[in-house]
Amino acid sequence: MKSNRFLVATAISCVGILSGFDVGTWNYIYIMESFTRYFSTSSSNGEISSYLTLSSVIGAIIGYVIVLILGDKIGRQRTMFIGSCIFIIGSIVKCISPRNYLIFISGYFINELALGCLAVITPIFIAEIAPHKTRGRYIFYYFILAFLGNVLGNITGSILSHYEKIGRFAPNSNLGWKLAIIIEIIMAIIVTIIVFFIPKSPRWLCANKKDEQAVEVISKLHNSTALDSEVQEEFNSIKDEAAFNRSSSFSGLFSSLVGRRTFIVILMCVFQEIIGVNEVYYVLAQMKDEIGFKDIIYKLLIYVSTFLGLMIGIFFIDKVGRKLSLVIGSCLMMIILFITFIFAVKHDESRQNVILAILGCFLYAICYHFSWCYIPVIYATEVFPYRVRVKGVALSFILGAIFSFVISLISNTLVINFGTKILLVYGGICLVVTIISKLFFIESKNIKLEDMDNEFSRK
Questions:
Q1: pLDDT at residue 1 above 60?
Q2: How far apart are CA 237 and CA 454, in angstroms?
Q3: Across all residues in the chain, what is the average pLDDT?
Q4: Res 170: pLDDT
Q5: Cα(421)–Cα(356) distance, rounded to whole angstroms?
Q6: pLDDT at 47
Q7: In angstroms, what CA-CA distances link 351 with 37, 120, 251?
Q8: What pLDDT, on a 0 to 100 scale, did the predictor assign at position 339?
Q9: What is the CA angle 257-260-266, rounded to 5?
Q10: Could you tell me the CA-to-CA distances from 298 to 66, 367, 373 in Å, in that order?
Q11: Residue 68 and residue 81: Cα distance in Å, rounded?
């Protein structure tokens, strides 16, 4: 019989569309003439941008903390449902906001809080229902839908912005930016309905002594009956781990059995932010301006490189594995950065050098997206035992947000001070990351969640 796991995982992955769409539309909303007029601000005014950046970081971190509280207590499905409802509330606040952009930003803050919550719990949920041999691919589908949501958001924002510029909306109308948010609300309602009907995680059910419901969910996921041998085998495996893993103390992340996994996940969070993706995109933006790249072509190439990275990642993740994908990714990024530097440093000699340097930056982006952009999240969702899984993943997101914020504050300064030599600096960092990943990381592909303790104890 055909399993229902893929169908359920795809339904859960629809949550990713909200995140991508929200980011995509916002790229256009805050520079729309109707928006700047309504809130008596300017698209060139950095004040609202600063508030938004701060509210985004703080909101997301609070969302991660909420998952720490709710993820184990009320379960994955209910946490996702609450997160989706909170997102709708935030979008409504933005849409009906009076002429005070601080109220609008409060709605944006609520959105980011909800998205932070969903970003942690959704991949955990997928990991807990996916077959162990294709678990990585299932979680990658969530990231693909987030990417498609971003593309859809950018297309929607671009169309509405264009319509506003050519006068398709009534004079002094606020329909342009509000329509983008209304579409967002409709999408969020659809996603919330989907989340309401998805089953609860069988691992959460077993951990909360709801064995009958757990068997029923596993049976539905297998599209079989409770008496099926595979259903019983999976149920017994989950039940045995649940009996051993009911405790969920945060200190368990640093126990002798789990501490090494926590250290590896923290390293991944650090490496994910320090291998230079922000700086490479900054250099790329400077060089495309030198040769007059049209913005639409630039954005299209960004999308293509991201999509190619995702497709390669789906192919690699369960065949090559997490560890080797990261090693290959950072090694290729190192080589690409060194070669790109050769052309970038001579960018003023010929147009060809600039084009080759830009090509190198896009190749770097492809390598980043099939490896370090998403695999650290996938790894965190699967290596921790049930008792600390939510806490371990939430910790990785919290640290990632902090590191990302710090890097964003200094990246422009680094590029200005180092110029194209920054490519050499990050090429060297990628070399160090490659060596450490090869020597200290432990593979987790094709291993059942309940067998991770045994796998790590042997290494």
A1: no
A2: 13
A3: 89
A4: 73
A5: 16
A6: 65
A7: 41, 44, 56
A8: 93
A9: 135
A10: 37, 18, 20
A11: 16
219: CB partners within 8 A, 6+ apart = 225, 226, 228, 231
Nearest of 349, 326, 327 to residue 420 by alpha carbon: 349
Tokens of 154: 């950018």
Of the segments 12-21, 110-119, 297-306, 340-349, which one has the largest average pLDDT value?
Answer: 110-119
Residue with tokens 């009907």: 197
Three-state secondary structure readout of the chain? CCCCHHHHHHHHHCHHHHHHHHHHHHHHHCCCHHHHHHCCCCCCCHHHHHHHHHHHHHHHHHHHHHHHHHCCCCCHHHHHHHHHHHHHHHHHHHHCCCCCHHHHHHHHHHHHHHHHHHHHHHHHHHHHHCCCCCHHHHHHHHHHHHHHHHHHHHHHHHHHHHHHHCCCCCCCCCHHHHHHHHHHHHHHHHHHHHHHHCCCCHHHHHHCCCHHHHHHHHHHHHCCCCCCHHHHHHHHHHHHHHHHCCCCCHHHHHCCCCHHHHHHHHHHHHHHHHCCHHHHHHHHHHHHHHCCCCHHHHHHHHHHHHHHHHHHHHHHHCCCCHHHHHHHHHHHHHHHHHHHHHHHCCCCCCHHHHHHHHHHHHHHHHHHHHCCCCHHHHHHHHHCCHHHHHHHHHHHHHHHHHHHHHHHHHHHHHHHHHHHHHHHHHHHHHHHHHHHHHHHCCCCCCCCHHHHHHHHHHC
Note the pLDDT tens digit of each residue in 401-446.
998 888 888 887 888 888 888 999 999 999 999 999 999 999 999 9
- 6-22 pLDDT tens trace: 889 888 999 999 999 99
Q: How confident is the model at residue 257 (pLDDT cuts 50, 70, 90)?
A: confident
- Is the full-model pTM beyond 0.70? yes
Count of C-beta atoms within a 10 Å radius of residue 284: 23
